[in-house]
Design a protein that fits this description.
Layout: H1 6-16, E1 19-21, E2 33-35, H2 37-56, E3 61-64, E4 69-71, H3 72-77, H4 80-83, E5 85-90, E6 97-99, E7 121-124, E8 127-129, E9 141-143, H5 148-152, H6 155-161, E10 168-177, E11 192-202, H7 207-224, E12 233-237, E13 247-255, E14 258-269, H8 271-286, E15 301-302, E16 309-310, E17 313-320, H9 321-332, E18 333-339, E19 342-347, E20 356-362, H10 368-382, E21 388-391, H11 397-407, E22 411-415, H12 417-422, E23 424-429, E24 435-439, H13 443-452
Parallel strand pairs: 3-10, 20-21, 20-22
Antiparallel strand pairs: 1-2, 4-9, 5-6, 5-7, 8-9, 10-11, 11-17, 12-13, 13-14, 14-17, 15-16, 18-19, 22-23, 23-24
Helix pairs in contact: 2-9
Length: 453
């Protein structure tokens, strides 16, 4: 039986060290979470799956890791400083502030039910900073609210360093920050979150075909790499397009309380490169470093064969890594009735995503020979460099199995007294609980098959 509510995942995350409340010992901070020993592993594995698909399996995409703090002018000319806001309303009775477009009923307070609600006003989502010894409290920088803009401003840098013909892309994974009015849904909507975004630059006449291509490519990735059933995903076109968009579609996952966005695929036209081209010229003219106001734009592309110079269109794929982790855990979470009043919770993760790839468990705690054999197996598996390997030496095989079921470990390797006689061990498989006996020398090969399968 899958998770009925996000609360099932919240409890598991705290109990097994996936996610903790940020600043918990001081009462926490809304929309801030800390990732524990197994949470960082699962997040890393999701990142790796995305990076492998975007970079290592293609020859037309380059990677980038831009700064989290940016010059204020970058966000001025991108349009964020003036327009990156949400509609804020406040309850006159209880003082609760709410994002109007996310209210259950826009005529009533979500907290107390009062109908005395203020008119909406624009609420700036960016987190401003005052940096430097002479800043004197004035905002002169921002924490980035997304990764995309810092990709656009590096377009020419990447193209000069690593020339490409169109189409080509630039991919980034990293933190973003938004001063959300009302963080919600555990790690679904936070003030500090992680994005995995691709900006794919195409000729303006080919934008529609590549938008469709990336829609199909990204949906297949969710199914094949993250293990999300196709029937739990859907495309949802935007009813109202943003000012920069020609087309925008979300991939939505069916959470326990309904479908919601996990990734967006947008046709941003030439808005972003065009905006920064204009902004850059304005800045350079103002700073008296550009004499010719009609000079060739720096953020354009020159076709090496035709000589055509133009600003490319951008197809963007933007995934929330935290949301992807939440969807993966919800889909993998399973409660099973084992009969005789026994049950178990198991995370049926794809082995490549599992935080722990294998656990080695001596059957008895106080038998030095078993511990020595188990330690040798652990060390051999570590040499495979496939991820985290754990050695359990509590002596309680049942509790160890249950703990690793909840963590999502695909296989446990049990070292028992028979091991000392014939040099074989028992592999206990997570999903089926089936057991197989194999020779110690075959363990590394078998674990590779399981993890890569």
């Amino acid at each position: 039986m899958p998770a009925k509510t996000v609360n099932d995942i919240v409890a598991l995350c705290k109990r097994r060290g996936f996610i903790f409340t940020g600043s918990e010992i001081y009462g926490g901070l809304g929309g801030a979470y800390d990732y524990g020993p197994y949470g960082v592993e699962l997040m890393k594995n999701i990142r790796n799956a995305w990076w492998n698909a975007m970079i290592y399996s293609r020859n037309d995409v380059e990677g980038l890791d831009a700064a989290l703090i940016s010059n204020r002018l970058l966000w001025k000319y991108s349009g964020h400083e003036a327009g990156f806001s949400d509609p804020l309303v406040e309850c006159k009775k209880c003082g609760t502030r709410m994002r109007q477009d996310k209210m259950k009923d826009q005529t009533k307070c979500d907290n107390c039910g009062s109908t005395e609600i203020t008119e909406p006003r624009a609420y700036q989502l960016m987190m401003g900073l005052s940096i430097g010894a002479t800043a004197d409290g004035a905002i002169n920088a921002y924490l980035r609210p997304e990764t995309a803009t810092t990709t656009y401003t590096n377009f020419k840098n990447v193209l000069d360093a690593k020339p490409h013909k169109l189409p080509f892309g630039i991919a980034q994974i990293g933190k973003a920050f938004r001063n959300e009015i009302s963080p919600r849904g555990f790690v679904f909507r936070m003030r500090e979150f992680e994005q995995a975004e691709l900006q794919y630059f195409v000729h303006p006449t080919q934008d529609e075909q590549y938008h469709k291509m990336w829609m199909e490519t990204r949906l297949a990735w969710w199914v094949n790499e993250l293990g999300i059933p196709a029937e739990k995903l859907r495309f949802m076109p935007h009813e109202k397009l943003a000012h920069y968009a020609k087309a925008a579609v979300d991939i939505e996952y069916e959470f326990p309380d309904g479908f919601d966005e996990v990734e967006g695929i947008h046709n941003r036209q030439d808005f972003d490169l065009g905006s920064h081209t204009k902004g850059q010229k304005e800045f350079e003219i103002h700073a008296n470093v550009l004499e010719n106001k009609d000079s060739t734009t720096k953020l354009s592309y020159s076709d090496p064969q035709t000589g055509e110079n133009f600003i490319p269109y951008v197809i963007e794929t933007a995934m929330g890594v935290n949301r992807a982790m939440l969807a993966v855990m919800l889909e993998a979470y399973t409660e099973e009735d084992l009969g005789d009043g026994k049950s178990r919770v198991v995370l049926k993760l794809k082995p490549k995503l599992a935080p722990v790839k294998a656990a080695v468990i001596p059957l008895a705690r106080n038998v030095p020979e078993l511990l020595e054999i188990a330690t040798n197996i652990e060390n051999d598996l570590r040499k495979l460099a496939i991820g985290r390997i754990e050695l359990e030496n509590s002596g309680n095989i049942g509790k160890n199995y249950r703990r690793h079921d909840e963590i999502g470990t695909p296989v446990c390797i049990t070292v028992d007294h028979q091991t000392m006689e014939d040099k074989t061990v028992t592999l206990r498989h997570r999903d089926s609980m089936a057991q197989e006996r194999i020779a110690i020398q075959d363990v590394p090969k078998r674990i590779l098959e399981i993890v890569n399968g």
